[in-house]
Amino acid sequence: AQSVAQPEDQVNVAEGNPLTVKCTYSVSGNPYLFWYVQYPNRGLQFLLKYITGDNLVKGSYGFEAEFNKSQTSFHLKKPSALVSDSALYFCAVRAKFNAGNMLTFGGGTRLMVKP
Amino acid sequence: GAVVSQHPSWVICKSGTSVKIECRSLDFQATTMFWYRQFPKQSLMLMATSNEGSKATYEQGVEKDKFLINHASLTLSTLTVTSAHPEDSSFYICSARATHRGELRYEQYFGPGTRLTVT
Q1: Cα atoms found within 13 Å of the Cα of residue A93, Cβ hemisphere only
Q2: A positions 27-56 inside 8 Å of B (CB)
Q3: How many angstroms separate the CA atoms of B36 and B92, rounded?
Q4: Which of A37, A51, A57, A103 to mutate to test the interface with B (most CBs of B within 10 A)?
Q5: A96 touches chain B (CB under 8 A)
Q6: Which of B28, B29, B101, B113 has the fewest CB atoms nearer than 10 Å to its CB?
Q7: Beta strands in chain B (DSSP E)
Q8: Distance separating alpha carbons of residues A61 and A59, to the nearest angstrom
Q9: A12-69: per-residue pLDDT in tens?
Q10: Is the pLDDT of residue A73 over 60?
Q11: Which of B23, B32, B39, B43 to mutate to test the interface with A (most CBs of A within 10 A)?
């Protein structure tokens, strides 16, 4: 079985400050990890993924995430938050050899960036 | 980038009627499409996986006779909610995995979602 935990329901940060949205996972074998963002009444937009290679992954809109195998984490980060980054963020995982190709999502973390 | 569309974006129907939601991959072929359901302030719950030309695989607890899925082409999958009831009201989101040079890509691309309200 595979699972994802996003321990924070909401993260508040001031505009211009760095932000971190936490994610830990559990899978059998090597993971494929993803971050998605969802704006109100919209579908999910792909931000970035880790498949293999460098542990630090850079994605859209200045976001990046660091894969830490020993801590089974894939935290999303941005050096300087924008008010427009306020949205719902989902971490997702899929085992490398998941025949069903199924993503498992975390519960989501609402990011609030205040001016 | 890969774009997935859904139609309609929102629909209101009366209890007992059926509603069809379309999911299209606009600029890529998708042999595999996924249907999710999302309740307010909750995460996405996978309902079923559909593969072009074959029967959908439903997750445990999802009624296959109630949520009919058809994936007739590489760019279109449909979800029909049959005999809808108020408890079926939800946000339905489809996603697709692109095929590039015959191989599946890693990421899924999501449609904008369809809000269904059953009165």
Answers
A1: 23
A2: 32, 34, 36, 41-46, 49, 51
A3: 6
A4: A103
A5: no
A6: B101
A7: 4-7, 10-13, 19-25, 32-38, 44-51, 57-58, 67-73, 76-81, 90-100, 103-110, 114-118
A8: 7
A9: 999 999 999 999 999 888 889 999 999 887 788 989 999 888 999 999 999 999 999 9
A10: yes
A11: B43
**What is the C-alpha radius of gyration for chain A, rounded to an integer number of angstroms?**
14
Rounded-to-integer distance, Cα B118 and Cα B14, Å: 6
User: A31: which 2 tokens?
Assistant: 């993971």
Given A43, A102, A103, which is nearest B111 (Cβ)?
A43
Cβ-contact B83, B62 below 8 angstroms: no
Contact B49 A108 (CB under 8 A): no
Q: Which residues contact B64 (CB under 8 A, 6 or more apart)?
A: B48, B56, B58
Report the alpha-carbon distance of residue A12 to residue A115 in Å, rounded: 11
